[in-house]
Amino acid sequence: MEKVIHDYFSRLEIISEPTIYDHLLLSLREKDYVATFNWDPFLLQAFHRNVQRFRLPRLLFLHGSVGAGYCEKDRTSGFIGNRCSKCDCFFAPTKLLYPVAKKNYHLDGFIDGQWKELKNQLRHAFMITIFGYSAPQSDVSAIDLMKSAWGNVNQRDMEQTEIIDIRSEDDLCSTWEPFIHTHHYETHCDFYDSWISNHPRRTGEAYINQYLMTKFIDNNPIPKEFGFEKLWGWYDQLKQVEESQH
Ligand SMILES: [Zn+2]
């Protein structure tokens, strides 16, 4: 069964024009993280075609991915088809975890490592954006893990949570209540209405300016209709400022 699923997802290929995956990755920076429950290779394929030009966020695959590989012995990971930098063996496919009530994350070295890193990062996160994830009903252990990492909502009084989902706001808030500090959340039906999309590569800075410094700031939305060359040129302007500050 796992092999059939693995083979099916492995054959999927991202379209050649920029997609929401490219826009998301290009709009974040090295210090950011994208964690996904999806098995498909689209995020990694988008990463691959943009990473030569830009420093991109780190990716975490919480249920494994057909595009990611792992060396159990050296605890290294990378694109499937690439080799481990320590022992030079090809990376083995990662396990794919199924959406069941109880998961044993700790039984698989790769997935265990991905969750540990997510928990570490969530402790220090300032903004978190959640994309259409129907937790907690479907995934009790995932929610428990995130809850313990995110900590007590009452002790986190500045963080901003944003939820991109087509469900109603009431429905979303009851689902995500354990994570959301009073008033510090927004919901949107469309990624292109989000803080990330309206302030690419400057999302946290834009938020701080507007709400903590009360300086009004203009949106700088992703030009989503651009092809790759024009799109990369547009992001280059932001990159140059980042590099001049190093
Ligand atoms: Zn190795």
As a percent range, the share of strand residues is 5-15%
Largest sheet: 3 strands, antiparallel
Mean pLDDT: 86
Q: Which structural class best describes the helix and strand composition?
A: alpha/beta
From the N-terminal CA to the C-terminal CA, the straight-line distance is 49 Å
The largest sheet has its strands arranged as 4-3-5
What do you see in this structure?
The structure is a single chain. The chain is globular. The protein has helices at residues 2-10, 20-26, 42-50, 109-124, 140-150, 169-176, 195-198, 203-212, 228-244, and strands at residues 33-36, 58-61, 68-71, 76-79, 92-93, 127-131, 160-164, 185-188. By secondary structure, it is α/β, with parallel strands linked by helices. The model has no long low-confidence stretch (mean pLDDT 86). 28% of the residues are buried. Helix 2 packs across helix 3 (42-50). It has one domain (2-244). The protein has a 3-stranded antiparallel beta sheet with strand order 4-3-5, with no helix packed on it. It has a 3-stranded parallel beta sheet with strand order 6-7-8, with no helix packed on it. The protein has a two-stranded parallel sheet with strand order 1-2. Residues 71, 73-74, 76, 84, 86-87, 89 line the site of zinc ion.
